[in-house]
Amino acid sequence: MAKQTDPKQPGSTLRSRHWFGKPDKDGFAHRSWLKNQGWPADLFDGRPVIGICNSWSELTPCNAHLRDVADAVKRGVWEMGAFPLEFPTMSLGEPVMRPTTMLFRNLMSMDVEESIRANPLDGVVLLSGCDKTTPAQLMGAASVDIPTIMLGGGPMLNGKFKGRDIGSGTDLWRFSEDVRAGKMSQADFEEAEACMSRSAGHCMTMGTASTMASMTEALGMMLPGSSAVPAVDAQRKRLAQFTGRRIVEMVREDLRMSKVLTRQAFENAIRVNACIGGSTNAVVHLLALARRMGVHLELSDFDRLGQELPLLVNLQPSGKYLMEDFYYAGGLPALMKEMGELLHLGHVTVSGKTVKENIAAAACYNREVIHTLDKPLKPLAGIAVLRGNLCPDGAVIKPSAATPKLLKHKGRAVVFESIEDYNARIDDPKLDIDENCVMVLKGAGPRGYPGFPEVGNLGLPKKVLAKGITDMVRISDARMSGTAYGAVVLHISPEAAVGGVLALVKNGDLVELDVERRRLHLDVSDAELAKRKAAWKAADPSYSRGYARLYIEHVNQAHQGADLDFLVGKSGDEVKRESH
After folding, report:
1. Can you tell me the distance from the alpha carbon of 491 to that of 514, in angstroms, rounded to the nearest whole number?
2. What tens digit of pLDDT does each residue of 502-554 get?
3. Which domains does the chain carry?
């Protein structure tokens, strides 16, 4: 797009001048209609226009406070002599949306991308919070590639129940199993419901929301120290104001996403994810973001870069504490300083400084929460990438959240053809299952559900829970919440719905899991599998119209980031035609 020089900043260019700098009828229209909000003429005189992309929604509890955060961002933009304009996008609320927010991550990314490209914006502040809003906004903005910075909404305060801290998601799964096992009363379960979510903000465990906020900071797309600050802490609004100031500087420096989201940025994020015990969902989101950015990243990189790293952060679900404690202990800068040379310290971030400069003054204030490299919480963390005849394109497991003895296991398959099949039979006393079996769920991949839901951490059968057993090997083409835990194998690719080997598993087949050898194997001969495949028929799509049909027809597999095939890559910021 033809760009015009900002008279206040010699040598710089402003994209918005293609709208507001024109003396003709089009410029008249662009300026005049905006003036109906009371904006004075001098706001259109060549100052940078900053978009505030807000995923606020009362249907997204984690993001319901972002209106106030946006106001603080605007203060920072005004201070720098720029013109802030807030705009909404689709919002994704993990707690309430059905069938899964992951179905709509790519749709939200399209909304963000087209909203940025179509409007007279020189830079953008992305306001995110709940799980999928963060990757969706980053993916959409990456495909436009103008100066961009993100600020998350921050985690909730620690939950409090009967004198102890409880964590969103992680304790929900635990309480639910306790009720089913008769260890917790329904009354206590309902009381805990009111005690878990005490303030505005997203999950305060190291679930997917906290993980993706940490990933954004580790990538260099968020000001240092931003990811762990509680949503209701005054520091969150100060950070918002600093973010508003910084985006104006980024516009004048022409610091675009493509200059920040390099291969080094993704390698830093993968390694940080290992050391924080981050969600397996980071895998699919980072793969999708890299493919938007044109950075070569593969599933195997998560294993290669993270498999030898220790777990340094003692947070649920892999540990004890919560995000509020992590913030008080020093947050991500303290963790990254402890990692030191494991990171690309010379990588330049949205702060305009290198990682080394960002973390230079960081300090740890609680070694119970942030451990040292020589005294880690667990010696090995990261996400293990499995291969085998069950998952030729890969599958993932989070060893730090699993029962160690189950990381090498061979058992008889108990197959559930769908989540409905599972729900109907799991507590049937006649179900032939014990703790040595391997629970197998089909039909929960990107196309099969559709949308790739967080149902992989299947609850155990009552008959097993009654024995005091709390973990079993579970495998599926699904995802699971970052707040969940257990010996759960996820993201099996190719998925069952497209005829992957998972679709061919039968009750009684032997399944072998060996995490140390990175192996997931179905003990069935190739000849028998070929026979089963010849008899297999794909189910009819569950949706015949609308976005869901588009999604089913175009979604990539898990190992490719589950983006839509036609969204991979970027189109840039150019808009060649006028609207009048």
Report:
1. 16
2. 999 999 999 999 999 999 999 999 999 999 999 999 999 889 999 999 999 99
3. 1-45 (no CATH), 48-158+207-359 (3.40.50.2300), 160-196 (no CATH), 384-539 (3.50.30.80)
